[in-house]
Design goal:
The protein is an alpha+beta fold. The chain has 2 domains: 30-132, Immunoglobulins (Immunoglobulin-like); 135-375, no CATH class. Helix content is 55%, strand content 16%. It is built from 13 helices and 10 strands. It has helices at residues 2-17, 135-154, 157-166, 174-196, 198-207, 217-239, 249-270, 276-293, 295-305, 313-336, 341-345, 348-370, 377-393; strands at 30-35, 38-42, 46-56, 61-65, 73-76, 79-82, 91-102, 106-115, 120-121, 126-132. The strands form 2 sheets. Strands 5-7-3-1-9 form a 5-stranded mixed β-sheet, with no helix packed on it. A 5-stranded mixed β-sheet has the order 2-10-8-4-6, with no helix packed on it. Helix 4 (174-196) crosses helix 5, helix 4 (174-196) runs antiparallel to helix 8 (276-293) and helix 10 (313-336) packs antiparallel against helix 12 (348-370). The model is unreliable at 14-27 and 380-402 (pLDDT under 50). The chain crosses the membrane at residues 143-164, 176-200, 220-239, 251-270, 276-296, 316-332, 352-371. It catalyses: L-cystine(out) + H(+)(out) = L-cystine(in) + H(+)(in). Residues 384-393 have a biased composition (Low complexity). It is a multi-pass membrane protein. It is found in: Lysosome membrane.
Length: 402
């Protein structure tokens, strides 16, 4: 475990150190930029964008918008004439208003090309357009997103609270806890590097010229909080009663495989076979793998003990709430943007959410149905001790004859 965390920390340090690297770029001639480069249009409603042209221009050119998405969006005008200034040394600084009318829901890039080519840099002449059915659904989706973010964030604390109250971690699977720490650690490394390292972000944008950084500030905050909260829970295992519990050989073997994969990926980066972005993708695959297997040890431990005592049901309920709301948000967005392919065409995110929810349901059944009468072994011992003391002080059983 220490080796894994150290490896991730070292790699993260190298990645963040690379944030100071940048490639100087100079632009010769005029440039055209569509502003804003991300716009949401409601079906049947209009929205305005601007084509901004700045720089030296020797002759008149025309900016033509692509018509391949006309079933989703109407653009007016579809073509803009940009005239070369007769004064000011041939320097143009103009802005042209473009109206967008939503026709049908969808998500796509609207591009524009300059004719004749070569006179204006049109690399930034594109916008990411989202045509939605309803503004209300957008608001509801955003609210749902913040609710499940809060539910998932808070879900780490009930387990620590119950451990503190019981002064015991008996009933909490050490395998689950260890795998969870690995998963959140590599996820935090992935998010922090891609969010804070300009070098890594540029690698991503080089591969996805019209893409956006997929890591948001709340992703970074959640992953860092999750890692720290899990570390605190691990620390409790060294402080409180833990009985005979320990990390199994199977869990250590799985972690060993992850360490080998991380070291191998690091060597490939060192030999320039991999880029740092590829290394981060390896970390993300480890996170996905952990999500698929981490709940199994806890479910098995509950089954063997025939009890969920020591395993926080509040944690499960909050995780279940977050998972259900996350899938609901995906379904709402799928309808609003007619983007079902992101759910069923690439089912990883939806499938992982559903997988976690199914395990939460299993834990709920174990707690409230199968093992609902199970008591804490410590409480049973205390009750037995109290009963013995009471009997001795009364000179025998309360039902015994004088």
């Amino acid at each position: 475990m220490a080796a894994l965390i150290t490896a991730v920390a070292l790699c993260l340090g190298v990645l963040l150190a690379g944030s100071n690297l940048s490639d100087a770029q100079t632009t010769i001639g005029a440039t055209v930029v569509l502003d804003p480069q991300d716009v949401t249009v409601i079906v049947g409603e209009r929205s305005e964008i601007f084509a901004k042209v700045r720089g030296p221009l020797a002759q008149d050119v025309r900016l033509n918008f692509s018509s391949e998405h006309e079933n989703y969006l109407q653009v007016n005008p579809t073509s803009v004439e940009i005239k070369a200034p007769s004064s000011s040394g041939g320097y143009v600084d103009s802005s042209y208003e473009i109206t967008l009318l939503g026709v049908s829901p969808g998500q796509f890039d609207l591009t524009a090309a300059v004719v004749p080519t070569g006179l204006i840099d049109d690399a930034a002449a594109f916008i990411r357009v989202t045509v939605a059915n309803s503004q209300t659904i957008i608001v509801v989706s955003n609210v749902i997103g913040w609710i499940y973010f809060a539910a998932w964030t808070v879900s780490f604390w009930p387990q620590m609270i119950i451990n503190y109250r019981r002064q015991s971690v008996v009933g909490l699977s050490f395998d689950f806890l260890t795998l969870n720490l690995v998963g959140h650690s590599v996820y935090a490394a992935f998010n922090c590097a891609l969010f804070w390292s300009g070098y890594i972000e540029q690698e991503y944008l080089d591969r996805n010229p019209r893409g956006l950084n997929p890591v948001l500030s709340n992703d970074v905050a959640f992953s860092i909080h999750a890692t720290l909260a899990t570390l605190l829970t691990v620390a409790q295992c060294f402080i409180y009663e833990r009985g005979e519990q320990k990390v199994s050989r199977i869990a250590w073997a799985i972690i060993g495989v992850f360490v080998i994969v991380i070291i191998t990926a690091g060597i490939l980066v060192g030999t320039e076979t991999f880029h740092w972005l590829d290394f981060l993708y390896v970390l993300s695959y480890i996170k996905l793998s952990v999500t698929l297997i981490k709940y199994v040890p806890q479910a098995v431990l509950n089954f063997r003990r025939k009890s969920t005592v020591g395993w926080s049901i509040e944690n499960v309920l909050l995780d279940f709430t977050g998972g259900m709301l996350s899938m609901l948000q995906m379904l709402l967005n799928g309808y609003n943007y007619d983007d079902w392919a992101s759910i069923f065409g690439d089912p990883t995110k939806f499938g992982l959410g559903l997988f976690s929810v199914l395990f939460d349901i299993l834990f709920i059944v174990q707690h409230y149905v199968l093992y609902r009468n199970a008591k804490d072994a410590k409480n049973l011992q205390e009750e037995s001790s109290t009963a013995t003391t009471t009997t001795a002080s009364n000179g025998g059983s309360k039902d015994s004859l004088p």
